[in-house]
Design goal:
Layout lengths: L5 E7 L12 E6 L5 H9 L17 E6 L6 E5 L10 H17 L3 E9 L6 H12 L4 E6 L6 H18 L6 E3 L8 H18 L8
Parallel strand pairs: 2-4, 2-5, 5-6, 6-7
Antiparallel strand pairs: 1-3, 3-4
The structure holds guanosine-5'-triphosphate (GTP) and magnesium ion.
């Protein structure tokens, strides 16, 4: 898919204040520093569109970006990360409620991309979050980030390990991508999936009645 434009639209603190849900929407989520902002910028070819921050957990809002606004518009959403060991438990819990409410209630949310850094052993926060998505019937894909930091052999070993762990919770391996914001690995595949899902959405959206 060709990305002809990408612009920041809104930051919302409530699902009710998000843009009108009339375009297909894709959310990106994962632990802080996993590479969400970098992946978003890499996908849309625009450095600095999604702001990077050295302060974990700083983002507390649902950030909407409008992609291909004039041609075939869709929303890309940057969400704050989950599972910050350092933030206060109460803040973490209220944040988790807020994001889970968004994920469970946003009617135009087509797919959530869950970013995971394979270099760390499978983390409880990631596994629990994936299970929660599954239990709630929220479609997702996993994106393993920062693959440029690993050799092909390391990727094979770490991926096999991760897959074995996931298959303890899942009957089959959830959909996944290998990615790198540095080498742009995974870009074409992720955009291809979004393009296909956008087409499905367009097919499902009721046609407007012809003008009299
Ligand atoms: P928060 O906004 O804090 O939740 O973090 P984030 O998930 O948005 O991560 P961000 O994109 O800001 O990246 C964190 C750090 O990882 C930055 O220093 C990036 O340059 C680096 N990084 C992100 N993606 C990649 C990648 O694919 N390869 C390499 N080598 N570094 C990456
Ligand atoms: Mg970020």
């Amino acid at each position: 898919m060709n990305i002809s434009s990408a612009e920041f639209l809104t930051s919302s603190t409530r699902v009710e204040n998000c843009p009108v849900p009339d375009k297909p929407e894709y959310a990106f989520i994962g632990r802080s520093n996993v590479g969400k902002s970098s992946l978003i910028n890499m996908l849309v070819n625009k450095k600095g569109l999604a702001k990077t921050s050295s302060t974990p957990g700083k983002t507390q809002t649902i950030n909407h970006f409008l992609i291909n606004g004039i041609t075939h518009p869709w929303y890309l959403v940057d969400l704050p990360g989950y599972g910050y060991a350092k933030s206060a438990k109460s803040a973490r819990e209220s944040w988790e409620r807020f994001v889970r409410y968004y994920l469970a209630h946003r009617e135009n949310l087509i797919c959530t991309f869950v970013l995971i850094d394979m270099r760390h052993p499978p983390q409880a926060a990631d596994l629990t979050f994936l299970e929660w998505l599954g239990k709630n019937g929220i479609p997702f894909q996993i994106v393993f980030t920062k693959c440029d930091k690993l050799s092909k052999g390391q990727i094979e070993v770490l991926f096999t390990h991760y897959q074995e762990r996931l298959l303890q919770d899942w009957e089959e391996m959830p959909g996944f991508f290998l990615s790198s914001a540095e080498t742009r690995l995974g870009r074409d595949q992720i955009l291809l999936l979004i393009d296909q899902l956008n087409r499905d959405w367009a097919g499902m959206t009721p046609l407007k009645s012809p003008a009299p």
